Amino acid sequence: MSLESSSVVLRDRKRAGVSVSEVDTGAQLVAGLTSTLEPDEALRIRRKIDRYIMPLMCVLYGIQFMDKLTLGSAAILGIQRATHLTTNEYNWLGTAFYLGYILFEYPQNLALQKFPVGKWMSINIFVWAVVLACHAACKSFRGLLAVRLLLGACEGSITAGFLIVSSMFYTRTEQTLRVGYWSLMLGTAQVICGFISFGVLHIHTTGFEPWQWLMIITATMTMILAILFWFLFPDSPTNAWFLTPDERVQAVQRLKENQTGVENKHFKMEQMIEALIDPKTWLFALLSALFNVPSSLLNQQSLILASFGFNYLQTTLLSCIPGVIQVLTVFTGVRLATRRPNSRAYVAAIYFVPAWLGVLLVNLIPWSNQAGLLAGQFLAVFTVPGFVLSLSWLNNVTAGHTKKVVTNATILSAYCVGNAAGPLMWKAQYKPRNHIPWAVIGACYVACPLLLLVIRAVLFRENRIRDAEPVDDGEEYVIERITEDGERVEVKVDKEFLDLTDRQNRDFRYVL
User: Fold this and answer.
1) Under a CB-based contact definition with an 8 Å cutoff, are residues 22 and 499 in contact?
2) pLDDT reported for residue 10
């Protein structure tokens, strides 16, 4: 088998020398290792990893999403009146967050490759806590626009960082559930934010309004988490503080089946080019953009519920219900996709059926039918498992650390495009029925399941092509090590840890 990496120099037909700087960081731990990892020991290591990193990931993802929701909640708490916002200015604040996100998404991903992942995310969490608190001091559209741009720039590191961390610590099978677990916090955050909003409505202080209290409370929670992340969140299984040296080796051994390694701190131009010309990158990017145009419902939700005739207290409580729905749908979606092999596209597509019904209800039933309008609004959020499954699927079908970083940046940039465009369709002239925005949402809900099936067909075809290719000729790969005596020795390293891309490694098979 020939490798496309320039770092490989053939010694003879069956043996190849590889530069240490080019291989995966995990290779340096497991190179020359001949023992196998027992299933019971692998399970123990996975459970230990779960105990130490999953709680932090879940709490952070929930608080990150809660911080994004503060604008929507603040709409009911008086931010528009206090800062003299027009409808279009309010919508632009939703877009501004994602403009900041997209402008810094590629730099953030490159930083996540170059610097320790946990520490880089901690710095971003700290900065966004400060920026969130600054919302409370804003008195005009310009001030809010500036802090929303900065908030997006900081939060751009989190989802990308979590995708990298998930691939560092978990096997491809485990990743679907773990991405689902921290994505459950999307719904949980909505519930918590709804209750916090309900609580601050009862705070009456001179010169400090309820929406300002919401910003300060959520900023304080974020600041505490930034400190915890700095000291407790690991950067990689190769140096995780809670694993012993032997357990770190075992944690890396567990990932051999992924054929994606752990990480590589060296940026590889050829992998970047491959990511940008790979058709599946752009199919996932288009899917990500279309998935997230309807996400503008989050910032509009309180206003839409209020337009149905509910008062402010009722609206804040009703806004918790979509959060409960998201928790239930994401949990059932990832569990179903895990239990049925190669079913990600099918499971994700199924969850669009209730959403189609929701769009029809909101548009067609009489405006006086409050219960029907509520049901339609709540059914429209059933699609969240589709995006969660697509994120974990993308992580499973991309190999090569630089390629993974560039692909994540591309998909999350497309995510920003969808989220940035969405708020702009909620114009004042479309109220109260908002038929135009709902028609756009309906079109996205039809296109997304079709794209999921197209991606599955493309990957299935590629697997068939690889199955028909000749079997690998069994080349061995080695890296040089210097012993304590100063002697240079060659140590065998498995191909799975050579930091090859999914295209370079013809033994790689795409999960469906």
Assistant:
1) yes
2) 36
The rounded distance, in Å, linking the Cα atoms of 246 and 250 is: 6
3-state secondary structure of 18: strand
E strand spans, 47-115: none
Q: What share of the chain is helix, strand, coil (3-state, %, to 5)?
A: 70, 5, 25
What predicted TM-score, i.e. pTM, was given to this entire model? 0.81
Distances (CA, A) of 247 to 45, 49, 491: 7, 10, 21
Alpha helices in 308-351 (DSSP H): 312-318, 321-339, 344-350
User: CA 70 to CA 316: how far, in whole Å?
Assistant: 12
Looking at residue 157, its amino acid is S
Q: What is the dihedral of CA 85, 87, 89, 90, to 10 degrees?
A: 80
What spatial distance separates the first Cα and last Cα of the chain, rounded to whole Å?
A: 25
Round to whole Å and give the CA distance between 252 and 168: 8
The amino acid present at 18, given as its one-letter code, is V
Distance CA 6, CA 9 (A): 8
Whether 215 contacts 136, CB under 8 Å: yes
Using an 8 Å Cβ cutoff, are 188 and 306 in contact? no
Two tokens, residue 61? 């993802």
Would you place residue 235 in the very low, low, confident or very high pLDDT band (cuts 50, 70, 90)? confident
pLDDT at 393 over 70: yes
Please give the pLDDT value at position 80. Answer: 84
